[in-house]
Amino acid sequence: MRNTSRLFTLILLLACAACKNSAGSAEIVAAPDSTSTRALDLTPSPLAQTSPTFRVTIESGPAGTPANEILVQPSIAPANAPKATLSPQAWIVLPVLPVVAPRLKEIYQRGLQLGNNPRAFSKIGDCGSTPAWFLGDFDRSSKYYSLGEYQYLEDVILEFQGSFARTSLAAKSGFNASSVFAPLWADRKQCQANEPPLACEFRVHRPIFAFITLGTNDVWHRDTFEPQMRRIIEYSIENGVVPILSTKADNDEGDGSINAIIASLANEYEIPLWNYWLAVQPIPNHGLQEDGAHITWGANRFDDPQAMKQGWPVRNLTALQVLNIVWRAATDQPGL
Asked: What are 54-82's pLDDT values in tens digits?
């Protein structure tokens, strides 16, 4: 069984081998076609709360964060709460699961008005956002995963069937934040002439939520990462797609600055932040392979302590929890 797991890991590594050096160097930046921007009505509204459990212990972070145990549970920001300003290192201790702001529901309602599919989500990212790695098993039969104590996630799995194993038109090996705006990288069979991958994905799939998992390939383009992420966020919101930002497990830039940008943007735009970096701090090598960039593979067996020492099942579990939270909050479903 161990040899089989190693073989599968090798196969996935080969499939993802060019992840950090191919389209990540794309410099072509073309603005996606969009409708004229109009202001959203951001009148606060009460949202529902969920209470999944996931405990993380960290010893230290990039800035020498002291030992701390955090009960990772989502919360709903009070309707009239002032928006906090994040310090450069605040992201290190932000919860794994998002604190949901009232703006989420406003974006969601806009998406419904535009005809987006309330049972669809998209993945925007590099090779780590392709189904072989990220969430694909949950469109297969339950023999490919085990929820263990997280049985409540079966509802969100059923709700979004068809999106888990779908190959996104805006997720490819080597993608960085600029690549999703480059028509050069669009699928010529499904995308229109001069249509960027992000615009193509939203037009074809019509998602209501989108996981934005970028940053690893932006270490060579750090000066463009923040403005391009702003474009992704604003384009998503304008098209009624709730962007879910994720921190990354690696620290290739050396100072955690890319994760700091991701967290700051989530705070500024009042959109969900999934602090995946924190989720993998307790596991061996922080969920990273020897190259310090690719995530360690394990089966999606959430009741298997050995599997849960690997980066990928932790990523897939927390991603399902995040999707469950934003879905329930957007639709006013009661807490668990």
From this structure: 444 434 344 333 333 333 444 445 445 55
In the chain the domains, ranked by start, together with CATH numbers, are: 2-28+44-330 (3.40.50.1110)
pLDDT one-digit tens code per residue, 80-119:
555 567 777 889 999 999 989 999 999 999 999 999 999 9
Please answer whether residues 329 and 99 qualify as being in contact, where contact means their C-beta atoms are separated by less than 8 angstroms: no
- pLDDT at residue 178 above 90? yes
> Which is nearest to 250 in space by CA: 299, 215, 226, 224?
215
Sheet with 121-125: strands ordered across? 121-125, 209-213, 242-246, 273-274
CA–CA dist 274, 118 (Å, integer): 20
This model's pTM is above 0.90: no
Torsion sign across C-alpha atoms 221, 225, 231, 236: positive
**213: helix, coil or strand?**
strand
Tell me the one-letter amino acid at 70: I
Contact partners, residue 234, CB within 8 Å, separation at least 6: none
Question: What is the token pair recorded at 47?
Answer: 């949202």
Residues 6+ apart with CB under 8 A from 90: 263
Q: Residue 75, Cβ neighbours under 10 Å: how many?
A: 14
What contacts 232, CB < 8 A, 6 or more positions away?
124, 177, 180, 198, 212, 214, 243
Distance CA 178, CA 189 (A): 21
CB 22 within 8 Å of CB 173: yes
Nearest Cα residue to 279 out of 131, 13, 93: 93
Rounded Cα–Cα distance for residues 86 and 92 (Å): 11
Q: Residue 38's pLDDT band (boundaries 50, 70, 90)?
A: very low
Q: H or E element: which one contains 99?
A: strand 99-100
**Euclidean distance between CA atoms 16 and 293, whole angstroms:** 11
